[in-house]
Structure formats: structure tokens, C-alpha cells
Prior knowledge:
The chain is α/β, with parallel strands linked by helices. The chain is about 40% helix and about 20% strand. It has 15 helices and 19 strands. A seven-stranded mixed beta sheet has the order 14-15-16-13-12-17-18, sandwiched between helices. Strand 4 (about 30-35) and strand 5 (about 40-45) form a beta hairpin. Helix 2 packs across helix 8. The longest helix is centred in the N-terminal third of the chain and has 25 residues, at about 105-130. Nicotinamide-adenine-dinucleotide (NAD) binds near residues 159, 241, 267 and 471. Nicotinamide-adenine-dinucleotide (NAD) binds near residues 166, 186, 236, 244 and 424.
Amino acid sequence: MRAALAGVGGALGRSYPLIVGGKRIETDGEIASLDPSDPSRVVGYAGRATEREADMALQTATEAFGSWSRTTPEARARIMLRAAGIMRRRKFELLAWEVYEGGKPWSEADAQVAEAIDFLEYYAREMLRLKDGVPIYAVPGEESRYFYQPMGVGVVIAPWNFPTAILTGMASAALVAGNTVVMKPSEFTPITGALVAEIFEEAGVPDGVMGYLPGYGSEIGDYLVSDARTRFVSFTGSMKTGLRINELAARQVERQRWIKRVIAEMGGKDAMIVDDSADLDSAAADIVKSAYGYSGQKCSAASRAILHADVYDEVLGKVVERARGLKIGAPESADVSVGPVISEPQFEKVSGYIDVGKDEGERVLGEDPGDPKNGYFVPPTIYAGVDPGAKIAQEEIFGPVLSVIRARDFDDALKIANDNPYGLTGGVYSRNREHLERARHEFKAGNVYFNRGITGALVGVQPFGGLGLSGTDSKAGGPDYLPLHMLARTVVERF
Ligand code: NAD
């Protein structure tokens, strides 16, 4: 890892043009990607697509669809497996880019790249499982077949917080299913996006089948989503952007001959409940891990701890003590557990919530963040005694800020947890079987975890996706994900 950091450290500041039809396309503008630990350091310069290049990318993907959609599923799967192999070979290099561009501590970077590899492997094998369709019944005298076929051009729009895993996952599912894609990475992590694009190319994704289109959402997002050539949009990001995409995609435009499909995975305000019967040490340890991993910048991060009144003081004390032990700093060092937040806007947003919290709870850990010029560092912060309806208990902060809420009993805790527009992840720490069974059915979240942390969903083991305003329940890394990228056909022949 140290050698990789030194190697990548010497390669910062290069330029990464767009990739359309296998060609490198220069743009008039550029996006300077900054190191969030040291914003004076440019990680790289990415192209900055405008509608002109977005048009070019959609046209190229449209033209490439015919041949790619006729490529056998086995051949497409093989390319994804090769991409997984390349990622394994280049793993430390990818981790180092994550450290510089994403501000990720080593273990977080490692988990993220491992997840990208898992997505490639999983979707490749899922395609092999589904390639001949699935069994259905037939009536005497007829043969009935039910199978899937590719959809068309997919626009893949990714966030910055899992810039390798989510971009790779969304794009590989679309590609292995036989679609062509235009990949738009986040403007905050376009260099990681360029590496993913390079790996797809090296693995054998043909020219034109995958376009790499870095750019600002505000400049090309609406265009990509609204265009008649777009067949589906695969998006992961904030609720606000997801709802806008859903709305725009629903409007039919001239020459559009389909209802666009939107796969949108969005934010969370995830809660962990600690019941009076729980193992309090484990609960506290997992709350801290789930709240502060990657500085709380995970859609699955615990941002609400809902504690049974009888154990409130004890658990709060343990959480504060553990969180105080976290080491904050630039993640180039192996022992750093909390790095910076991603960007200046994110730093300002989280700092704003820290101010709001002063009126909404008692700050039992943390201090005001320092000068962002010295890196976008925000110390782990805990507000105690927060009202369930408070702003910091209702809105997604996406930073290292935990709101601790007191519940009268388990019923009250579950009610508080569910009283939120999001529904992504949630956790219950309890030894009471009846309570766990209630939560199994009544906790309003796509991913519910008992007696463990609530982040780090494993591909194929914990299919991931939200309810409510957290998304379209697509469950990435699960058995229902690939069919979302295909059209199902029923063909019946009478003998
Ligand atoms: P964001 O919504 O600001 O941006 C996500 C992507 O959308 C970026 O590529 C951005 O350029 C693009 N975009 C912006 N405006 C657009 C528009 N009008 N049309 C099309 N695209 C547009 O989100 P972010 O800050 O990058 O990511 C953080 C958010 O993502 C958090 O809310 C987090 O919870 C969520 N997230 C959810 C999951 C999940 O699986 N549910 C996973 C990771 C992150």
C-alpha cells in the first residue's frame, strides 16, 4: 500500500479526457479534482462534457447497441470476469487513488474496491444464470418460453462516495445484460471514474459500448436523462437529484418510443435501536463503526442512535468514549480512521448542520470544524437528547454527526425509527426475540440488521437498496437486480 501511494502520488495532476467510441475527446473546459485532505493538491484534470459531447456519447451508444446486444451473454460475462481480474491485479493502485481523490482511509478504500470486484463477478454469473430465461408452465400442445433481452442505451449516473464500487456495479450490470452505457461519474471523483472506464476497455468492452462522460450534473444531467435515445437511467445519489431524474424521465419527448425505466438509489437517515436487553458494549462499538466509517459519508451510515431509556446513559457513555478514540487525519497514514469529507460544499453543509445541532441537542462530542483550506476535516460529533422531529434527526447530513435519541420503550423506539421519509438501512440491538421478530416485519428499511453494524453490505449476501424515499428498491448485488436492466419476453409456439 505504501508503494502504491508513492507511485500514485507521483502521478497526480494528469489529464483524463472523455472517452466516446474508443476515442479520447478533449473538451473546452475541465474539472480539477482536488484532494480533500489538501485541497491545494490537484489529483487530476478530467474533461468537462457539455451537451455537445453528451449528444455524441448518446449517439455512439445508440449505434453500438445493435452489435453488442447480439453478443452472446457468455461473451459479455467473460469480459466482466476479465475486468474483475484486472481490478484484482491493480487493486493497490486503485486503493491509492481512492485515498487521494476520495479521502478514504485504507480499510474503507479496500472494502470499496473489493465490492467493485464482487459486483463484476456476481453480475457476470447472474447473467449466466438468466441467459436462457426462467422456467414457466406450458399448456398441452404449446411451448412457452420466458426470457430476457437487452433494453438499449443506459445512462449511468454515479455519486462520489463509492466511486469505484457503485460506478462499476451499475455499469457492469447494464453492460453484461447487453445494453450500451454512457457513464457519468461524480464531478468530485472523475479520476477514479476514468480508471474504471480504462479497466472496462482493457477487459474488452468494445469501442462505443461504454462512454466515459465526466461532467457536472447541473450541465449535462437533464440533457442525458431527457433525451429520446435514453432507454433507462441507473442512478445512485441524493434524494433531490433522484426525484428530479424520475420526474424528467417520466415525460415523453418527441421520437421517444418507450417509457424510460429509472433505477434510483438515494439517501438515508439510518437508525440503530438499542433495546434494554442488548449487549451494550457490542452495540456501542457497532454504532461508532457504522456512524463514522468514511466520516459518515455512506448512504447506510448510522446517523440516529435510538436508545431505550433504561440503557440510555450507559450506551451514550460508551459511544462517546469509543468515538473519542477515533484518529482523524489525512488517510495516507495507515492508522487514520476518520478522513476528511469530500469537498468544500460538503464541508459547508455538514458544518451548517453542526450549527443547527447546537439548538437541537447537547453536543457531547466534537468541536467546530477548522479552516477548510487545511483540508475538509470535520471531527466526529455527537448530539445527545435530540428530539425525534429535530432537523438533525430527520435530514440526511452525510457527515460524521450522530443524533442520539431517547425512547421510552421498544415500541417507541421503532416508531421513532420509522417516522422518517427515508428507509435505507436500520439496525436493532436486542436479545428479545419478540422484538426482533416485530422489527423483521415492521422496521421500514430495505436492509435491516440485528445485533451487528448496518454498513458494508456484501454483494450477493446482503442485497442492498432502500424503501420510501431512499430509492426504487432495486437491491444492488441481489438476484432481482439484473432483470431491471432487461426486457422480459414471452414467446409461445403451438405445435
Ligand atoms: P448527488 O445527487 O449530488 O449526485 C449524484 C450524481 O448525480 C452525480 O454524478 C451528479 O453529477 C449527478 N447529478 C446532479 N444533478 C443531476 C441532474 N439534474 N441530472 C442528472 N444527474 C445529476 O449525490 P452525491 O452527493 O454525489 O452522493 C451522495 C448521495 O448519494 C447521498 O444522498 C447518499 O445517501 C446517496 N447514496 C445512496 C446510495 C444507495 O445505494 N442508496 C449509495 C451511495 C450514495
